[in-house]
Structure to design on (294 residues):
């Protein structure tokens, strides 16, 4: 496959990754290696380097783990359709991460979501006001606002990462089943959305952790929207089409110019390519088999 991995710079003090047993955390651990970070989970995991505690019910353990870290990457939080969970925990986890960041004197990166933009059409840039269209997006938007306010209060630099669709972790490629159907618009195309490959996402996170400064908000995706049908075809997945309803949105594209600018010293972000993104997921998938909830 043509994806080029960014070299990960080993940091003098490793980051603490909260929610590391989830899908993105496992991709990051696979990509960077077990020694690259302190990996938090709530239950025992295979391999070395795990810190086992619940960040919400055991804040003392969170503070202790953060004491050995240089910064915090919070990937923890309930995901729609994957075991439920209280969406309000999204906000509580963000605030807990910021408080731990204040204790260690380091910055905090929080995994947010492009869902905060709701049904707005692209290109969507970070200065747009959030207009979430569902409860998940609303929880992420509130987490961002509360975490940024708390960060200013406590003197903690906070960067919210608005992650787009991750190929293989999404509702299209990841949720494919026989009989899958996509909307088709008058031009013959299926919906187009901003995507990022799973391994490319891990490379981006590794590069961001190595940068000395980050902005308060960053969109995380590869340049150029991807047609959902093209992604399924690249994976060899059959699908049917149905005329798109009037309420369907043909394209939602994240503006990633800010991201590419910040990444430039560490990583050249490749344009979105369905075949490469599928290959990344196929390479990673065997390492996700023992996944447990964070």
């Amino acid at each position: 496959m043509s994806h080029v991995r960014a070299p990960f710079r080993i940091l003098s003090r490793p980051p603490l990754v909260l929610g590391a047993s989830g899908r993105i955390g496992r991709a990051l651990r696979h990509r960077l290696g077990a020694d690259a970070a302190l990996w938090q989970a709530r239950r025992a995991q295979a391999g070395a380097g795990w810190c086992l505690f619940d960040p919400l019910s055991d804040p003392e353990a969170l503070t202790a783990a953060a004491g050995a870290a240089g910064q915090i990457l919070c990937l923890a939080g309930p995901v729609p359709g994957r075991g439920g969970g209280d969406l309000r925990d999204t906000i509580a986890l963000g605030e807990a991460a910021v408080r731990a960041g204040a204790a260690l004197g380091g910055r905090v990166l929080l995994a947010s979501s492009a869902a905060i933009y709701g049904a707005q059409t692209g290109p969507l840039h970070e200065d747009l006001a959030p207009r979430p269209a569902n409860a998940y997006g609303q929880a992420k938007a509130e987490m961002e606002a509360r975490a940024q306010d708390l960060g200013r209060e406590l003197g903690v630099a906070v960067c919210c990462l608005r992650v787009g669709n991750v190929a293989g972790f999404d509702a299209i490629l990841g949720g494919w089943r026989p009989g899958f159907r996509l909307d088709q618009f008058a031009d013959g195309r299926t919906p187009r959305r901003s995507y990022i490959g799973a391994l490319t996402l891990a490379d981006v996170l590794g590069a961001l952790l190595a940068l000395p400064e980050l902005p308060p908000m960053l969109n995380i995706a590869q340049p150029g929207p991807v047609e959902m049908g093209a992604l399924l075809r690249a994976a060899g997945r059959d699908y049917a089409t149905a005329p798109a309803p009037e309420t369907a949105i043909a394209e939602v594209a994240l503006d990633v110019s800010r991201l590419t600018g910040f990444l430039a010293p560490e990583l050249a972000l490749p344009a979105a390519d369905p075949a490469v993104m599928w290959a990344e997921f196929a390479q990673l998938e065997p390492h996700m088999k023992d996944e447990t909830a964070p």
